[in-house]
Amino acid sequence: MPEINRRKFLIASAGAGAAGLLSTAAAVSWPDLMRAAQDRPLADGAGVLVLVTLYGGNDGINTLIPYADNAYHDARPELAYAAGDVLHLDSQLGLNPGMKGLAQLWTQRQLAIVRGVSYPQPDHSHFRSMDIWQTASPAEPVSTGWIGRWLDATGDDPLRAVNIGPVLPPLAVGEKYTAAALSTTHVPAAQAERFDAIMSALGNDDRADTPAMAAVCKAYRATRTTNKTFESVKPASAEHNSLATQLSMVAAAVRAGAPTRVYTVQLGGFDTHANERNTQQRLLQTLDEAVTPFLRDMAADRHGKNVVLMAYSEFGRRVAANASQGTDHGTAGPVFIAGVPVKGGFYGEEPSLTNLDHGDLKYTTDFRDVYYELLSRTVGTDPTPSVGSGRNSLGFL
Q: What are the E-state strand segments in 102-227?
C-alpha cells in the first residue's frame, strides 16, 4: 500500500473517531494466542457475560406488558395488546407475543426481569442516554466504558472481552485497554487474502505517525490477530437474523474454551416513532429467535452453562402513544437477564403508569446495580472501578 494512502487512511480513521473507539487495544501474536489456548483456556466454572444492546430505545411497556392495568389500555388504546394476546407471566404482567422462547425460559426459572431500570435525571437523546448506559456515568461524560474500566483494572489480554463486529461500542473502551473486535463478514479467499495484506500494512508502525494514527495502527493489529484466533470456531452464517449470527459465533467460541469473559453483540431498529406495533413485535421475535436457541445450546455445554446474558436498551418510551401509532423517547424500561445461573423472577418495582414525570415513567432501579451484580457474580471482579461505590446486588444471580 503506498505510504500516502496509508497516511490518509489513518488520519481519516483517527479523525472519524476510530482512535477513540479502538485506541489502545493490545496486540498479540498468533503464537501467543495459540500458547494461551493451550496453557490457559477458559477455566471450568468461569462465568461468561454476554451483553445484548438493543439500539433505538425499546418500548418496555409493550415488551413487559401490564395487560391488567386499565391505565395501559387508556394511554395507548390502539397500540395496546389485549390480555388474550399477551404471554402471561403472572396475573398482572406478560411478555410481548413475539417472545415465546423467553416465556419458556421464565417457566424454567432461567429468566430474570429487572423492572423500571434507568438512572437519575434521564436524558431523551439516543446518543447521550446510550453513552450513559455504556459508560455507567450519569452525572458527567467520561471517555471510558464500564467494561473498559474492568479491562484497565485486570490486565492486558485482548481476548478477555470480544465485540462481535468491527467497531467497538463505548462500553468496551478503557483508558489503557479495549476489547477486541471480531468481524462477522464472510469474504472470498482471494479477497480475504488481499484484505489481510491491507490490514497488515495498516498495522505497521511508522516513526512519522501521530499518536492518534499510531493508536489506530495498534487497533488494526489487534483486530487482525483476533480474527485469526477465531477463524477455526466461526460457524455458518445465519443471514436471516444478524443477532443469531453474532450469538452463534459467541456460542462456538464458548464451546471451544476461548478465554473470553465478556462478549458484546447488538440489534438495532427500536426507534419506533410510527407504526410501532408490528415493527417492535418483529424485532422482539428476532431477539427471541436468536437468544433462546443460543441459551439452550449453552445450557448443555460445560463452559456454556456458566453463561449469563443481559439485554438492555438506552431508554424506554413514553406511556402514551403518539399520533402516528408509535411512541416517543421515554425513560425507564425492563432489563432481561437469562441463563442457567440466573434466579428467575421479577426484580425491582414495577413503575406506575399514572404517577408520571411529565408523561414519563419514574425509574425504580438504577442500572448500575444490575452491572454491579453481573461484574461481581459472573465476571468475578470488584465492580467498584466500573460502577463506583455504593451500589448493591439485586439478587438475580
A: 111-118, 161-164, 180-182
Average pLDDT over residues 194-206: 59
Size of the chain in residues: 397
Q: What is the largest CA-CA distance in the chain?
A: 68
Q: Which residue has the cell 454491579?
A: 372
With H, G, I as helix, E, B as strand and everything else as coil, classify residue 30.
Answer: helix
Q: Which grid coordinates belong to 261?
A: 469473559
Query: What distance lies between CA 243 and its chain's CA centroid?
Result: 11
Q: Locate 383 and state its grid cell.
A: 465492580
- Output phi, psi for 347, to 5 deg: -135, 145
Gap between the Cα atoms of 196 and 245, Å rounded: 22
Torsion of CA 251, 257, 262, 266, to 10 degrees: -20
pTM above 0.90, yes or no: no
Ordered domains of the chain (ranges, CATH)? 41-184+237-387 (3.40.720.10)
Going by pLDDT thresholds of 50, 70 and 90, the confidence category of residue 305 is very high
Selected residue with higher pLDDT from 268 and 36: 268
SS3 breakdown of the chain: % helix, strand, coil, rounded to 5? 40, 15, 45
Q: Which three cell numbers stand for residue 355?
A: 404517577
Beta strands in the chain (DSSP E): 48-54, 64-65, 87-88, 94-95, 111-118, 161-164, 180-182, 262-267, 307-313, 333-338, 345-347, 365-366
244-301 tens-digit pLDDT: 999 998 898 888 888 999 999 999 999 999 999 999 999 999 999 999 999 999 999 9
Reported as a pLDDT band with limits 50, 70 and 90, residue 72 is very high
Q: Angle, nearest 10°, between helix axes 189-202 and 211-230?
A: 150
